[in-house]
Amino acid sequence: MAALGEAQSSTHVDSMRMAARRHIDQKGVYAVHRLTMQDGSQVLEYASSGGVVFAVSWKTQYKPNVAALLGSSYPSYAVAVRAQGQRGGIQRHFLHEGSDLVVKSHAHLNVFSGVAYRRSLLPAGLRPDQIE
Amino acid sequence: MFKGLLSILVAAVLLLGCGGGENSSVTTITGGGQQGPQAGPVIRAAFVALDNNLEVVVDAGPTDGFSLAQANILYATVTVCEPGSSFNCQTIDHIQVDTGSVGLRVLASKVKALNLPSVELATDAVNGRPIVAHECYPFVIGGLWGPNKVADVGLGKQWATRIPIQLIQDDAAALPAVPQDCTDAADEKILSSASTLGSNGILGIGSVTLDCGHICVLGDYSNSYVQYWACPQDAISTVNCQAAAIPANFQVFNPVAALPQHNNGVVLTLPAVDGLGASKVYGELIFGINTSSSSASSNNQLAATARRVNLGVDWQNNFASYLNVTTQFNGATIANSYLDTGTNALFFTDTGITNCLGSTWFCPKDLLHLSAVLSDGDNPAQNKTTVAFDVGNADSLFSTTNTAFPLLAGTYTAAAASGPSFSWGLPFFYGRRTYLSIWQQAGAENGPWYAF
Fold this sequence. Notes:
The structure holds 2 protein chains of 2 kinds. By secondary structure, chain A is α+β, with helices and mostly antiparallel strands. Chain A has one domain (10-121). Chain A is 17% helix and 37% strand. Chain A contains 3 helices and 7 strands; from the N terminus they run H-E-E-E-E-H-H-E-E-E. Chain A has helices at residues 10-17, 66-70, 74-83, and strands at 21-26, 30-36, 42-48, 53-60, 93-97, 101-108, 111-118. Chain A has a 7-stranded antiparallel beta sheet, covered by helices on one side. Chain A starts with 9 loop residues before the first helix and ends in a 14-residue tail after the last strand. The relative contact order of chain A is 0.19. Chain B folds into 2 domains: 53-250, Cathepsin D, subunit A, domain 1 (Beta Barrel), CATH 2.40.70; 292-451, Cathepsin D, subunit A, domain 1, CATH 2.40.70. In chain B, the strands form 2 sheets. Chain B has a 7-stranded mixed beta sheet, with no helix packed on it. Chain B has a 6-stranded mixed barrel with strand order 3-4-10-5-9-8. The longest helix of chain B is centred in the first third of the chain and has 15 residues, at 2-16. Chain B is globular, with a radius of gyration of 22 Å. Classes of the chains: A alpha+beta, B mainly beta. At the A-B interface, strand 3, strand 4, helix 3, strand 5 and strand 6 of A face helix 3 and helix 4 of B.
């Protein structure tokens, strides 16, 4: 599926698979593919002019399939989660700032939000905080 | 009645000599480190069990939750019964009180003596046996797996009858095994013991009534992990389980919203705690807001002096404020803000405060006196209310053997798609009477709110 580090064309496959509305915003050196689900939940896929998805973000009323969104980057996310160790109690936010992969996520009352990007794929001049 | 109760509480506090209430002083322990770990006071005001209340406690957690240092986890004791029975019941201590989730989830081993009926979704066309619900409940990291059951849930003298709950499967040999999809949903961290949970279960009493909602009603998990599964009764393999559409009234339900009368929210009162904290703190969780009418019930009238802020409800246009309020802090307006008993500290971003070595906790040299302004979610200009709070040195706090830390705070590490967040965890609730309503219940028809 369309995932971090993969080709932009796969975002079309996404909208079919998820029965989502797709809206594309051209932002100069990159494009934002906004997939809106039936319940208004959104997944945004950021594709460079070279056609590679360099960031994904989500604002959903459920936990999105992080493995599918991160694609080939998922194993390094899984390693980061394991490295965090076990802690008691409930966790509501998570941060992984790797040398390449960055994942930030949050959940409260079944509202999930997050962003993941790969530093090496960011278009020149784009700051990570411009990814919404 | 209210005055009478209050004077009993004050008298008890004076007798105990250890404080509680907003204006009383509490034994403060200073220093620490040189002469070994120190223990703060046990703070317990007189508790009178009435029709609609429950004593709650912040302590070291369940006895079999060994090894983890607990900080600011609020627990209640909950009774689970077979529907309609007042004998076939189990009383379970150390269930975490969580206003950031919805539904009762208890370790399966704690109710193994009971024969709780399954949540039946359908009947197998071939053999006529029931198809029953299992659930994979995800957190931001980690998740819970286990069957859904129907139970009568006792919260003090209040009973939520015949509500769906989740058992947290803590028998590794139990079948059906955890589906791979659920292992993925839990980031390979299935929480299935008192030690991994820090509790014997979770009492989710947040601002809404359902634990999933739309996608589960439709059974559309195309962008998510499967939350509800339909498995044949006594399935031995998850191969036989399928992703399930599950009507709202079969989903795990907010137990407070299911109470017959005091069902529109809760009032949480925790005593003030000073300095390096307390080894144990008792408080009162009252069911209902403005529902008590006689001395048989604990007073839950919204005080005239209480300040109310409304949670945002405009999901389509105002995502970051959805089920959140607004916090203004250090000149920033932070939409993604909420009060949460399930978060064990205050989490926010302030690059001016030093972090502890090797962690994201705050470690200021001196105690910090700070303040922020809370206001409505969808209309941040409305209902502005100033909240003062203090931040202490987490290394000093953790050098004690305490479990209740009013000064515990850390960096909110995940400024994500919805922008920065300000999580007002358990320290917010010490020394306050906090009202948390439930959306679509009486008094919160148009949206949930907090008052304090």
